[in-house]
Amino acid sequence: MSADDTDFLARRFEAHRGHLRAVAHRMLGSAAEAEDAVQEAWFRVSRSDTARIDNLGGWLTTVVGRVCLDMLRSRRSRAEEPLDAAAPEPPAPTASATAAAPDPEQDVLLADSIGVALLVVLDTLTPAERLAFVLHDLFGVSYDEVADVVDRTPAAARQLASRARRRVQGVGAPETGGAGQRRRREVVAAFLAAAREGDFEGLLDVLDPDVIARTEVGVTTGAAAVARGAATFGPLAGVARTALVDGVPGFVVLAEGRVERALRFAFVRDRIAVIDIVTEPGRVSRLDVREI
C-alpha cells in the first residue's frame, strides 16, 4: 500500500474512531483497553485490502469486535478485572500523523455513556454473550454480522444475545412470569404514565442514572437527558400499549392497527438501563410483539 493510500485509509478510519472506541469501551469496561483495541483494529485494517468494502463502518465494527473478544477471553483466562471502568476517556492518538484529530463530542458521549451499574452486570457474561449483547442490543449490529464475529450461526448468535439480555434484566424465572418480571412490567407502566403526564421526577424515579436511549439516528445518555426526551413523548405515550417486545417488557405505538414504533427495555436493579427505540419499518417488522 502506498503512502497516499495509507493516509487516505487513515482518514477514513479516523472518521469511525469515536464509534469504534464506544463499542470497545462497552465491551471491555476500560478506557485504556478500549484504546488498545482500536489501535489493534487499525493495525489489522492497515494490512487489509479495503478497496472493495462497501460498508467500511460495519466492517470496522466487526474487526474491533473480534479484537475485543480476544481481549475478553485473554482477560478471563487470567482472571483479571478492568481497573478503570469509571475513569474518564483519555485523548486518543491518531492512526497516522496525517489523520484527523479525534472528535471531542465523541469522547464526551463515550465518557458519559459508560454506566458502572451496567458494566457490573456485563462482567457476569461470557465473552461471546457480552459481545452479542453489546453489538446487537446497544449498537444495532445484525445477528448475521455478530455470528461472523463469534464464529457461530445467526441463530446461535441470537441465543447468545438472548441469554445476555436475561442476565442484564436479572431474570431468574421464565420471561413471561415471576415476581421480577411483574416488577419490570410495573416499572414500564410507571415510565409510560410519567411520560403521558410529562412528569420529569416520575421518569427519574424509574431510570438508572446511566440509562442509554438508542434510536436509529443516535444515542442519548444519562437519566436527566433521557427523562427530558421522554417528557415530550406525551401525545404518543397516550396511545401506546404495553407489550412484550422480543420477549422483554416494553410498549408499542400503533397506526392503523400496525406497530409503527416499539420501545424495549433492559434493566439494572429494577431500573431502566437501556431503551431501544425502534422506528425503521424493516426493523419493526422483524420484532416479536405480544401485547400485555
Describe this structure in words.
It is a single chain. With about 290 residues, this protein is of the alpha+beta class. The chain folds into 2 domains: about 5-125, no CATH class; about 180-290, Nuclear Transport Factor 2, Chain: A, CATH 3.10.450.50. The protein is about 55% helix and about 15% strand. The chain contains 13 helices and 7 strands. A 7-stranded mixed β-sheet has the order 2-1-6-5-4-3-7, with helices on both faces. A hairpin with a 2-residue loop joins strand 4 and strand 5 (about 260-270). Helix 6 (about 125-140) crosses helix 8. The longest helix is centred in the N-terminal third of the chain and has 26 residues, at about 5-30.
In a nutshell, what does this entry contain?
This protein has 292 residues and is an alpha+beta fold. Helices cover 55% and strands 16% of the residues. It has two domains: 3-123, no CATH class; 179-291, Nuclear Transport Factor 2, Chain: A.
